[in-house]
Automatic annotation (TrEMBL):
GO terms for biological process: response to antibiotic. Residues 1-25 are annotated as: Disordered. PROSITE patterns: ABC_TM2. This is Transport permease protein. One of its GO terms (cellular component) is ATP-binding cassette (ABC) transporter complex. It comes from Yinghuangia soli. Its main location: membrane.
């Protein structure tokens, strides 16, 4: 006689609804269980990104070497013609700006990864699986922040090689690096939102059109005081300029100074701008993610 069988609970992802959207997985009962679930799934998706980079290191290496090339070009090719406000070495003036530019260039990496997953249906597949709804975006953020740490380490080594250093102690220098990562965290949500909203990775050119003016219309390479009045005002209030100005102050590197509110409160603005950007784009990114395939 054959023993009766007991049906096991299915682990298959929930089927799509007739409208094309997916039924989200049920949440665990307790808050602690939900946090453990989200953390475990986020780390799994972070490892997915890290494994992709390990298998295709060429793209990552080129992305890390690009800002090094910019440093060498501006530091040695154009640097001899640059006057630092108040005097000082131009390469010491340049390096804090290049640290911040490395964070800004990361928007393109985030956008390309998110839009590619969305266009290929990978994101929809994640949404249909019994994983934490927040894990996809949190995993992406964690991986990109780790990438940014590596990028900062490469840029610090490059800066030391060209004669840059901090002069006001390690604690203030760590504060400056923290501001760079805070800026990167805020810009991550812009990249995630635009990646989810874009029609596909071919829209990367549009993101580059956004990133390059943001980077160059700042105090990264030249003082806003040398620009026409209206253009200098825009450069002063650029969120990137706040981070760069604050970092120069914390590092003890030459800066562009000035008596404007933005110049006198660079550290405060370097915190306020990323917080404001996160408050705007984090809910936009989450809402866009939840509305995929609807």
């Amino acid at each position: 006689m054959t023993a009766p069988t007991t049906a096991l609970p299915s682990t298959a992802p929930p089927p799509p609804t007739p409208g094309g959207s997916f039924v989200p997985p049920a949440l665990p009962d307790s808050r602690a269980a939900r946090l453990r679930w989200a953390a475990t799934d986020s780390w799994t998706l972070t490892r997915r990104t890290l494994m992709h980079w390990a298998r295709q290191p060429g793209t990552l290496v080129l992305a890390l070497l690009f800002p090094v090339m910019i440093v060498l070009m501006f530091g040695y090719l154009f640097g001899g013609q640059m006057d630092v406000p108040g005097g000082g070495d131009y390469r010491e003036f340049l390096m804090p700006g290049m640290f911040a530019m490395t964070m800004v260039f990361g928007i393109e990496t985030t956008f390309a990864a998110v839009s590619t997953d969305a266009a290929r249906g990978v994101t929809d597949r994640f949404r249909s699986m019994p994983i934490s709804p927040s894990a996809v975006v949190v995993g992406r953020c964690t991986a990109d922040l780790l990438n940014s740490l590596v990028g900062l380490a490469v840029m610090v080594a490059c800066g030391r090689a060209v004669g840059w250093s901090w002069h006001d102690g390690l604690l203030r220098a760590l504060g400056a690096f923290g501001l760079f990562l805070l800026l990167r965290f805020a810009l991550l949500w812009i990249g995630i939102y635009l990646g989810l909203a874009a029609k596909g990775p071919e829209s990367l050119v549009a993101i580059q059109v956004l990133v390059w003016p943001l980077g160059f219309l700042s105090n990264t390479y030249a003082s806003p005081e040398t620009m026409p009045g209206w253009l200098g005002a825009i450069a002063e209030w650029n969120p990137l300029s706040a981070t760069v100005g604050a970092a120069r102050e914390l590092f003890g590197n030459p800066g562009w100074g000035g008596d404007s509110f933005a110049a006198r409160h660079a550290v405060e603005l370097a915190v306020a701008w990323p917080v404001l950007i996160t408050l705007v784009f984090f809910p936009l990114a989450v809402r866009r993610y939840n509305r995929l395939s609807r």
